[in-house]
Sequence to fold (345 residues):
Amino acid sequence: MTMKILLIGHRGYVGPVAARHLTRSLPGAEVHGIDANWFQGSEAAPFPDALFASQRRADVRDLTEADFRGFDAVVALAAVSNDPIGKEFEDATADINSAAVLKAAAAAKAAGVKRFVFASSCSMYGAGSDSFRKETDTLNPLTAYARSKVATEEGLRALAGDGFMVTSLRFATACGASPMLRLDLVLNDFVATALRTGRIEVLSDGSPWRPLIHVEDMARAIEWALVRAGADLVEVNVGSQAWTWQVGQLARDVAGLLGGVAVEINTNAAPDKRSYRVDFSRFAELAPDHQPTKDFHEAVRELADLVRGMDFAGTTVRESRFIRLNILRGHVAGGRLDSALRWTA
Fold:
């Protein structure tokens, strides 16, 4: 039987990779997309329009029950996507990442959607000790972005049940090649700056821990959430111990793979409190057939190949259109988006 799936935020970093995976792995799957289209025109490679049965522009804040009728499953990817954007657009972060997603989930349930998959984040654990953080541990969100994810999970708990299966996937830090490439993610930034400048500059003292997950493995986890049996509510850390690094060591590993790259670590930097290690054992138990499989060397090579073919239009990596905050600032400065990150026309 065909599964009709709606990706909210399908023209972001994860959407095209998820669509490619789902159309390959779920026979007969029909994938549709809704997106605010903030980042249209900042593609690193052609967007795979053919993967989608339909696409349209809409703000997640404006979706109603009618938008969800006829769908079997909804995957909520739409979000103000990182800490720097959350700091600059704090109200919009809470409004979009939490209030709008919860409103959409309630509308989806009312429309008869059976499965709702929420792209959550391990950043909710905030400042962690050297112990591995489990799903049952106290959350300690340090940023507007992380707080928005906590609030959404709390609201989704009340909606789960009565045939409405909610899965909150607490993803590790995303990385890897995508047509909608982001270079404001730590591994992607390291590869791009290494290739563009011959060096990797670590802005922290290199000690913070970061669990990473390749975007293709994120898609595998989304597939699991769409087909899993069991409870109406699952909140689970998604990633692997094998892909957990201290930031300084990650820089050195990238430099070693690319060759001829210097690593500069700011040993005088103030401590970065966003440091955490995560226990992924529950995900291994729940989804043994959907575990991360991406090889790190292959991931770096694919990123490098993509970056070498990209047009930076004379800008540095951190000034480029591949940094999400730069795009949003440009839209606001040009009057195309207002301060709430809504289109003005």
Q: What stands out?
A: The CA atoms of residues 104 and 195 lie 41 Å apart. The chain has a mean pLDDT of 95. The chain is about 35% helix and 20% strand. Residues 4-333 form a domain with the Rossmann fold fold (CATH 3.40.50.720).
